[in-house]
Amino acid sequence: MVARIGVDVGGTFTDVVLWDAGSDTLHIRKVPTRVEDFTGVIGEAVADLLRSVGIASSNVTFLAHGTTIATNQILERDGAKTAVVCTRGFRDVLEIGRLSRPPGYLYDLTCHLPLPLVPRRRRLEISERVDYHGAVVRPLVEEELAGLLDALDEEGAESVAICLLFSYVNAAHEAMIRDFIQSRRPNLFVSASSDIMPEYREYERMATTVLNAYVGPRVARYIERLQGRLAPLTGGARIFVMQSNGGLTSPESVVRRPVTTLFSGPSAGAIAGTTVGASAGFTKIINIDMGGTSFDVSLALNGELVRTNERAIDHTPVKVPMIDIHTIGTGGGSIAWVDEADRFRVGPRSAGAYPGPSCYGRGGDDATVTDASLLLGYLNPKRPLGGTVRLSPGRARSACRRLGKKLGIDALEAAAGIHRIANTAMVGAVRAVSSAQGHDSREFVLVAFGGAGPVHAIELAHEIGCKWVVVPLYPGCNSAMGLLNADTHHDFVRSLVSEWSELSVGELEEIFQHLLREGTDALTQDGVSQRYFERSLDVRYLGQDFSINIGIDNRPMLDDDCSSVQTLFHTRHEQLYGFKNANLPVELVNLRLKAKGLLPKLGLSAKAAGPSHRARPISRRPAYDHRSSGFRDAAIFDRAQLAPGSVIEGPAIVEQEDATTIVAEGYIGVVDVYGNLVIGTEEWHGRA
Amino acid sequence: MDALDPVTLEVVRSTLLAITAEMKSVVTRTAYSTLWREAGDLSCAILTTDGDLVAQGEGDIPVHFGTMPTSAKCCIRAIGQEHLQRGDILFSNDPYSGNNHLPDFLMLRPVFIGHRLFAYGAVRGHYVDVGGHSPGSHSVLAHDIYAEGLRIPPIRLVEAGTMKQDIIDILRANTRNSQERLGDLNAQMAGCVTAERRLIELGKRFGPEVALQAMQQILNDTELEMRRAVSAIPDGEYAFTDYLDDDGVSPQPVRIQAVVRVEGDEVNVDFTGSALQVAGAMNCPMAVTLSATYYALKGLATPRSPGNSGTYRPIHVHAPEGTIVNCRPPAPVIAGNTETANRIVDVVLGALAPALPERVPAAGSGSTSSLIIGGIDDRPGSKRREYIYVEPHGSAHGASMSHDGTSGTRVGVGNTGNTPTEAIEIKFPLRVEAYELVPDSGGAGRTRGGCSIRHRIRILAEEASVIICGERGKIPPYGLFGGEAGMKASVTLDPGTPGERTLPLKTDAVRCRKGTVVEYIAPGSGGYGDPRERDVKLIREDKRDGWTCPGKVESSH
Question: What is this model's ipTM?
Answer without folding.
Answer: 0.94
